[in-house]
Amino acid sequence: MTKKTIIKSFYFLLFTLFVFSCKKEESVNSENQKPSASEAISQSEPHPDSIKTNPVKESAAPMIQENGFYNAFAIPKDSKKRDSLYAIFSKKYSERERYAILALNRLDSKSKWNSDTLVVPAKIDTTLMAYSPFPLQLDILTDVKKFVIFSYPIQAYAVYSNGTLVKWGPTSMGKKTAQTDRGLMFANWKKKLAISTVKSEWKLPYNFNIHNTHGIGWHQYDLPGYPASHSCLRLLMKDAIWLYSYADTWILNPGGATTKAKGTPVIVFGDYPWGKRKPWRKLLEDPNANNISVEEMNRIIQPHVEKMISEQTNREKVADSIKTAKASEAALKETTSTEN
Length: 340
What we know:
Layout: H1 3-32, H2 37-42, E1 64-65, E2 70-74, H3 79-92, H4 95-104, E3 117-121, E4 147-151, E5 156-161, E6 164-170, E7 183-186, E8 190-195, E9 203-211, E10 216-220, E11 233-235, H5 237-246, E12 251-252, E13 259-261, E14 265-269, H6 294-301, H7 305-339
Parallel strand pairs: 4-14, 10-11
Antiparallel strand pairs: 1-2, 2-3, 4-5, 5-6, 7-14, 8-9, 9-10, 12-13
């Protein structure tokens, strides 16, 4: 074999090895680009109430997914892992902070794991006022001393005094088959412990009736994270106690058969997105997702302002009249007692 032939054979061998190496690398890259099982699942159509999360192994410890103003606290289905999560949750947040987090998710402590994800603020405000979906000021209510409004769409209530927001919180309103009446109503009578007319086993602490003929009222009861009541307006215990003291009752004529003056005005409005993603989950993408604008609130309230002010004025006159009559009666008894 000549020297020239040996050189040609050497270069041919190098070329063959190079081509084989390229094809092998191309094959490996092609296999690596195939989606894994977890990636295939993540690329499928998401459930309307789900959130975007990175795929994690089932055995991975529960963690908070940092998204910005609000974060997602994923809750595993396995009961043992839930216990582990509760320990982490309790260690990370104080009792008041846990209360606030659950309230934002329309949950009470009894129903704390009645969800697969908790929406958690990056900074906890235990008063909840930093997360209010309601406007802080409504000039349209300047002349209305007390006012309560319930939003069906976001399952939340708000309290205004002369147009200033003084409190807001979560609620669980009537389920789809037993929805709460919408529109303007007024606070009627109240009772610290009422018995449900639907089931006598249901005890309703700090019940405040707002629709006497339909038996609708607000009171403390379970908040499971969705509309679940038989038309009443469920509240957390602290909120039920607060509203029990805040709102004014009706004033009845002698004998109690007719109303002499109405109590605090209450409006229930809107509709819940039945079967769709829970509204507060949208906060993970947009911290203003649940906000109700001043314009929308004005549109809801405007048709009822004249009626509310009229009833308020009447109640003040009736209350003053009763107060004057009682004072006169007391003075008369004192005079009679002195003379005797």
